[in-house]
Each structure stands twice: as structure tokens, then as C-alpha cells.
Amino acid sequence: MKAACIMQKEIRESILTPKGSLWYILTSMILSVLSYLFLTNSELSLLDQGQMLYMIMNFITALGVLMGLVFGADAFAGEIERGTLEALFLSPVTKVEIATGKLGAALANWGILFAISLPYLFVVGKGGQNLFVGIAYLAFLGTFLAITSSAFSMGLSSRIKSVKNSLIISFFIFLLAGSPIFLSAAQRGTWFGRIIDFINPFAGAINTFDSVVIDSQGFGYQAGRVATIFGYTLLSLWFLKRSVSRLEM
Amino acid sequence: MKRPILFLSMIFLAITANYATASAAHRITASIDPPIIQANMGDKITYVGTITNNSDEPVNNIIAYVSLANVTQGRESPMDLEDWSANKAIKVDTIPPHGTYKGQWPMRLIDSGSYVAYITVVDKNDNTPISSAMSRLEIKRVLRLNPNNVLPIAIGEPMIIGMILSLIAIRRRKRIK
Amino acid sequence: MIINVKNLVKKYDGYTALDGLNFTVEHGDIFGFLGPNGAGKTTTIRIMTAIIQADSGNVLIDGHSILGEPLAVKKIINALPESNGYYEWMTAHEYLELFSHLYKEKTSKQEVYKLLEIVGLYGKENHFIRTYSRGMKQRLGIARALINRPKLLFLDEPTNGLDPKGRRDIHDLLIDLNRNHDTTIFLSTHLLDDVERLCNRIAIINYGKIVRMGELDRMKGKGTIEDIFFLSTKEGTL
Predict the structure, then answer these.
(1) B174 touches C at CB < 8 Å
(2) Domain containing B105 — which CATH number?
(3) Based on the domain organization, do B70 and B50 belong to the same domain?
(4) Peptide bond before residue C164 is cis, with ω within 30 degrees of 0
(5) ipTM above 0.90, yes or no
(6) What is the extent of the structural domain holding B154?
(7) Is the pTM of this model over 0.90?
(8) Between 20 and 30 A from A154 (CA), which of A227, A239, B154, C201?
(9) If you count DSSP H runs as helices and E runs as strands, how many of each does chain C have, helices first?
């Protein structure tokens, strides 16, 4: 399958070039520092195990979203700037197949990031509550968010055709998505805070992790937020398909 | 006639003043147990505060709370118990005459140092709050170099990832010029 | 005929790049496509290779319409664009394997090696592309363009930046492809020497229209190809 060929090429590029490999090493180093700080710091180490697990899950999700945005920004605009997209367009591969292959690679990158994170999750969450449930939700929602951020960023990349500009916009989107963390608990309880929480898929994921890991609430309680996140995933896939279909050199 | 009235009045005043003083001093007393605790950072302890009603009448709606002060040399300060204890204040509905109430204050020891803890009781019918004696609390800092066995992961994983990626690159370069 | 271009129109932001282009190319031609900068050469090639869409008009490639059957067209053509980039982290062998998989399910290593031999890169297949000279990259681009044994090969400035030996090697390769492998070649270039040496038929485009077309020898007559080119593309000439 041609999309699989493209996907394989992208994954190889991630592993064999600094584009991806540096990301994996840096992620591992950051998680090492974070987990060690959590567990040894005189204040933070006395946080509840569930609290620590929740905080590190948020961080991993944020990393996954950021990686999706950065890789997505390069997907089409980078190939145009390096002059390699035309050769792909000359091949009997449709634009949607190219996009599918690149999206598959983005998903594989998230999978590698998640695998790297697993030992840290186990060591931070050991002995605490809801560890396995938390990891399952991270896998589930993290995947949806990775698809959303990658697809959206790729669509943007194909429209803007400039890596620099795609990255700038993607970075601002990331800040916007992460803005809930700047609001206090009281602010998030206001009508405005609740609206932000409702429409923001990243906030939806954070709140779900809180609800599952710290408050031990079941899936029924999360259904609304999960549905919102899934909705965003479908929207971003539609945006990507529409954007690449119109892409011309 | 004046002299006996004055004398009797003075005796009456002395008796009532004495009685009032005795009431203010002994109507409620508080104590804290244990008197001394030595523990490590992260440990959980529980203070037991005993509130005694020394009067012949019941006392109602009193509030009792635990306070903590850092008395470590150079770091003397009152402590905010936000992270230490979830239930700092207790409201007691009623203590019968000559009865006692025992309250519990569980605490998680967040930081190391020398502290004193005491129970304070507030009765709105009194002018002054009543405090217990101070309980000495010594918390030792625990050096946790490898909590939850995190070091092998924290040091090992980046190294392993780096090694795997290097091996892949080296193997590829052997085939390639 | 292998190419039939009918009334092609393409506009960019109010600027008309192609203004009702019409021409044909026969099987077995080495067809030269000439014109000054901005005449519409690259736009024409991109439309014929189904990379971009025309605003109106159609192109038939070996009977297949690029509008209705773009994938069928792509299977029988290939191209070396003017600004061809490469995946520099790959080796030549990996690069050709990638594209061979995009064209067919299975390609043998022997087929890839044979291609590299045809373009003169045999023995350098396991070198990183980033270590290749410009000429070697051009050859690799031609190898990629031959991966599906195309009936029709589009080349946009294939000898750009090459030294005389490099240019001669490319010329010989193209002549060999045309004569011994029955490949029709559509060559867009500024280099009139290349046209003179390679092409049997040419078309000259200016301001998005064909201004001159026909057999090269007949068009030259007693003059030179430069005469034809400059006369045809003189300001005001259409």
C-alpha cells in the first residue's frame, strides 16, 4: 500500500535523522528530571501518588500535542521548501494517500513517545491509585489528541506552504490549548472558565485525567469530554483532507 | 453602722472576685498529647487534644484548633497548616459539667525542623482563649536519593534510548559509505 | 500522437500564464519546448504531469485525459522537474526503492541496480545523497524518472549547472533512451545547444501561447536555432 510506503519513509526519517531521534532523547531526559524531582523534592514528593501521576500524564499529553504540531508543520511545507514534494506528486499516489502516510507516521511517533513514557508512569505512580486506568486513558485520549494536533498542523502546512509560518501558528494554538493551566481553580469554576474547559480538547483531557486518577470516577462521567475530543479529531481529519485536496505546487 | 456594712461589703466583694477569678481560670482547660514527638519528614502523626469543662454548667459551641510554630533557630515563624492538616478546627457542640472532650488532629509532616504544637480553645463567653501546654515536635529531614527506585529509570532510560539510536545509525553506516 | 494539448488556460492572481495553448507531440519525438523566462514552460509541464490543474482546456497523454484519469497518466509518464529535491539522508538505493514501491508492488534489487548503471551511478548506490555532486543528483533524478519505464519523459532543464562532460553524458543517455528504449522525451530548456543536438521537433512558447512549432531542421532552413528563437520571442511577436 502506497500510504504505508510513505509512512515507512517518514518513520525511518524520524529514527535515522535528528528530526525525530533528538526529540525522543530529549523527551526521555525531561521525563527523567521531572520524575526525579517529583519523587525527591521536599515539597512535591509529599504530594499524593495520584497527584504526581496526574501531573506527569498532563506533561506527556502536552509533549504529544506539541510533537504533533511541530512534525505536522513540516509535513507539506517542509517538502515544498526542500523541493521533494514534486517528485511525490509525480508518482501515482493521491494527495490523500500521502497525507494518510504522514499521519500514520505522526501516530507512530506518538506511540514511541508513549512507550518511552511508560517506565516513568510506572515509577511515579507505583503504589498509588488508578495507575493502570490512568495509563489506559492516557493512551486513549493521547492518541486522539495526537491525531488532532498532527492533522490540523498538516492541513495548515499544506495551505500556508511555509514551515516557519506554520510553526508560529501551531505554537500559538498550543499556547491557547494549554491556557487552562494558567487559570486558577476558582476561575475555571466560573461560567467563562467552564466554556473554555468545554471547547478546549486539551483541557478536556486534563480534566478527564483528574477525574479518573484523583477522583476515581468512571467512564460515564467522562463521556461528554471524550465525545468533544473525538469531535475535534474528526474535524481536524476533515480539515486535513480538504486542505491537501486543494494543494498545488 | 457604717463600719459593719463596709466591712461586710468588702468581704462579699472579695469572695465574688475570688469566685470570678476561679471561674475564668478553670472553667475550661485544654491539654495536648503526646508532649513530645520525634518523627521523619513525610510521617503521619495525630495529636489528641483533651478539653475539660471544670464548671458546674455545660459549655456550648466552643471551637478548638491546633497551631504550629517553627522554633528552629533562624527560621522562627508561625506555620500555615494548609498542606499539613485537613481538619485544623473543630467545633464542639457541648461539654457537660465536669466532662471532657477528646479531639483528634491528624497531621502529615511536610518539612523538617523544630516545632511546637498546642491546642487553643475559644469560648465566646470568656474574655481570653485557653491554650494547652506546648508539645515539642522534632522532624528529621530524610534524604531520599532513590525513592520508588526512580534512579535506574531516570538515568538508564535516556542512556538506553541513546544507545539504541546510535546502534541503528552505526549499523546503517556500516552498509553505507 | 502521445501528447495532445487543447486550449489550455491557466491564470495566477489575474496574471495569465497560459492563454489557450495548443500543440501535439508524436510518439518517438525528442520534443524541445523553448521560451523565455516566464513564458509558461514549467506551468505547461506541471499541467501535463497532473501536478496542477488548468483553469480550462485538456491534455490527452497517450489517449488518457489528465482531468479524468490522472493516475493512469502518471503510470505511463515521469518527469525530472527543474528544482528537484532529494531526501538527503537516504542513499541512492533507498531513494529509488521508495519510488519503485510507489509505482509497483515489488521491485527487485537487480532492477534498481540496472537503473543506476544506466545513469552511471553503479557503485555509488550506498552513498548518502547528501554526498553527491550536482551532476550525480541530476543522474539520480533521471534514474528516478525512469523507474517506471515511462513511455513519456518530461525533463525541465536537465543539464542545468552541469559541466560539459556532464551535459554530454546526459545527452547520450537521452538519445539512448529515445532510440533503444522507445521513450518519447519532452525537453524544456534554455540551452539551444541541447536543443540542436537532441531534438527533432520543437515548439516555442511566449506569453502563454505557441508562437512557432515544427520540425527543427525545416524551421532552421539556412539560419540558426538562435535566429528562430530570437525572432519568435521578440517583443510584440505572437
Answers:
(1) no
(2) 2.60.40.10
(3) yes
(4) no
(5) no
(6) 145-177
(7) no
(8) A227
(9) 9, 10
